[in-house]
Amino acid sequence: MIPAVVYAIPAFVLLVVVEALSYRFLPDDDERGYELRDTVTSMSMGAGSQVVAVPWKVVTILLYAGVFAVVPWHLSPSSAWTWVLLFFGDDLAYYAFHRAHHRVRVLWASHVVHHSSVRFNLSTALRQSWTPMTGLPFWLPLALLGVPPWMILLQQAFSLVYQFFLHTERVDRLWRPVEWFFNTPSHHRVHHGSNNVYLDRNYGGILIVWDRLLGTFEPEGVRVVYGLTKNIDTYNPVRVAFHEFAAAWRDVRAARRWRDRAGYLFGPPGWAPRADA
């Protein structure tokens, strides 16, 4: 089973080249642009994520199909309302997935890969996790609603393709109604910021309305500083993929109490026991 997004990879690579050349011929001192080692790392992470995704997609499809088979209602792919439900349901599922992966450390250990670059360009979109299994539960409710599994996977692919184009500094703010309803490069630059004001903001996939409704929206203001609050300073794909899992394991091994071990795994990133505990 080949993930649908794989078919867009040639276009992704071509657009990365085009954007990189744009910095060569139209440089901008206010934008970080590209750095070869960083770009190679991002593309290596993307290639590795697709290799891992192949067997995992099989597991995902089997689980979705099993759930879909046991529910007594099935929504018709020929109905426009099924696609409308799927669009909003998928985007809300992505918001929940994304927010959880910033607020639970064991999930963050997977997602941190995507935030590990100190640059922000189209190649950053390809810097993906090698542990995709952490996202499975968030889309199961769509199968429970009777949405056919192939439709869920297709909409996920559409969302990922859309989000590829958010990873750029070459696009400024868009028309105000677009900025209000949809996730845009400006909103997503905020999400990748390590500035205190930008941490844990703008989780949306295609839409930004969930962030506005649930209090996690932040407009782009001060210059964005990309990367992590503590950058890992490595271009080694294996270290990029697993450094936070290793750090969490070290904290768990050093903890003396089970509740502290649980806190290091299921608390937010940066959680530590109180000094007086």
UniProtKB/TrEMBL annotation:
EC code(s) of this entry: 1.-.-.-
Membrane topology: Multi-pass membrane protein
Compartment(s) of residence: Endomembrane system
Keyword Zinc recorded: no
GO molecular function, one term: oxidoreductase activity
Keyword tags: Lipid metabolism, Membrane, Oxidoreductase, Transmembrane, Transmembrane helix
Top-level class of the enzyme under EC nomenclature: oxidoreductase
Domain Fatty acid hydroxylase: 83-216
Source superkingdom: Bacteria
Transmembrane spans: 53-73, 80-97, 138-166
Keyword Transmembrane helix: yes
Name recorded for this polypeptide: Sterol desaturase family protein
Species of origin: Streptomyces carpinensis
